[in-house]
Amino acid sequence: MAGIDLGTSGAKLSLTSVGGSVTYGATVSYPFFSRFPGWAEQDPEDWWNAVCRGMHRLLTEHNVLATDVRGVGFSGQMHGLVILDAEKNVIAPAILHCDARAGEEKNVVSREELIEWGILNPAFSGFQMTSLLWLKKHKPQEFKRIRYVLSPKDYVRYRLTGELGTEWTDASATLLFDVEHRCWSSPMLERIGLDPAVLSPVSGPCDLCGTVTVAAAKEIGLAKGTPVSFGGADQPMQALGNGVLVPEEMTCTVGSGGQLFLNTRKPWINPALNTHTFCNVEQDSWYQLGAMLTAGTAFQYLAGLFYPGESWETINHEVEDVLDETVQPVFLPYLNGERSPHMDESLRGLMFGMTISCTRAHYMRAAMEGICFAMRDMMEILNRLGAPEERMVVSGGYTRSPVWMQMMATVLGRSLCLTENRSYQASVGAAITAGVGSGVYTSLREGVSCCVHFSDKSVNPDPARSAFYEERYATFRAVFNQCYGENQRTV
User: Which helix (H) or strand (E) is 374 found in, with range?
Assistant: First the structure.
């Protein structure tokens, strides 16, 4: 089975054998545009080209015949907006989840209405609803041309199959969807003046959308007629690829952003609306999500400044050497606003406590700590909502850093568990949906049992450093309060 994960910085593709013993992966990057401060855009054509290159590379390098691929599934970056005209051509660059231009548009709806209408999520810039309102106000001619509204992965799947559609995990992350009843929200569409006809019918992640067309087969290298499943949003797909299907299990991911994912039996209502409630893969499951906008992005930004072209091993080694030093700058990792728990597009990053004694290793240590502390902010909310005090399955770039992993375990107070697949969890989750949709597996659980294998190693909190990080976390919060005011905090 093939899995295609459309990320913010690149596409990750995988081929997984039916028995799950082999997974091949390929990553193809694409550019990210910011034409004005706070904007975040991509060209959907770049997504399609990257997916085609990645699939050709996988098939060629691993001598896999196109006819051996039993099905294709999708995973993708959430919240983003792709708009098509009547001829199904892209009207404008895609507006991404981390775009901060629509801060004013979120005020069109109250917190009470978001709960009453079953949307159960805070209004925030970068979601489809707020991006559409921004277009309506600032680009009215483009808005009038809209005939189809899609999420990012749904556009790429359209290019593969010629069929338009979406599924409930991505739909629930648009602010246009009734999360409780799994349908488009009539009150919200009426409020923003959006024609329901521009939205796609909503299916389940394992349902088949269509098959690979003749034209797409020539471009991507797959066989004409290969079944294609809808797949899902990247967070439920990474959870599936991490083997998290049981209610109350959790994942902790640091990719471009950072996420804490809690599988739940019902749609939790967080009265503060500073976390997210979205539909999970199965019909009767949901999840609670804490999301930070610039986790790995912030780390990579500083690594590019201080360690250009150098390896993870070098950063790990140097940070480990300064873990116990008294020079301790504090980093607020809010490079383009923040979602959970602050829900404020205007927040910005800060390196506090710099001295002439600071080296590049001190700044990278502060980056690791700051991201861990921001995740701890989200964990505090989930704890109050009833998160279990058990292990979490972890994924993302930070799993390559033993120092960072140990820090995260201690700061969050959780044991961190790893799967053997460290880089392609979301695409493997997408492949599992393809396996169910094409009849290779009878259920998601069978797919998970075949494709997900856990490492026998875990990372546990370090009791000897617990008090130290509690003190550092208190300092992190104090710096935030000093910069942005205590009334800004919602932890």
Answer: helix 360-385
Average pLDDT, the chain: 94
d(CA 92, CA 439): 38
CA distances from 452 to 213, 378, 431, 437 (A): 30, 27, 11, 18
- What Rg do the C-alpha atoms of the chain give, in angstroms? 22
Instruction: Give pTM, 2 decimals.
Output: 0.92
Q: What is the mean pLDDT of residues 56-79?
A: 97
- Find out whether the peptide bond into 341 is cis, omega within 30 degrees of 0: yes
E strand or H helix at 366, and its extent? helix 360-385
> Is the confidence at residue 246, as pLDDT, over 90?
no
Q: Cβ neighbours of residue 193 under 8 Å, at least 6 residues apart?
A: 136
In the numeric block, the tokens 């797409």 are attached to 216
Q: Encode burial over 27-60: b for 16+ CB neighbours within 10 A, e otherwise.
A: bbebebeeeeebbbbbebebbbebbbbbbbbbbe
Q: What percent of the chain lies above the pLDDT cut of 90?
A: 88
210, 223, 227, 112: which is closest to 161 by C-alpha? 210
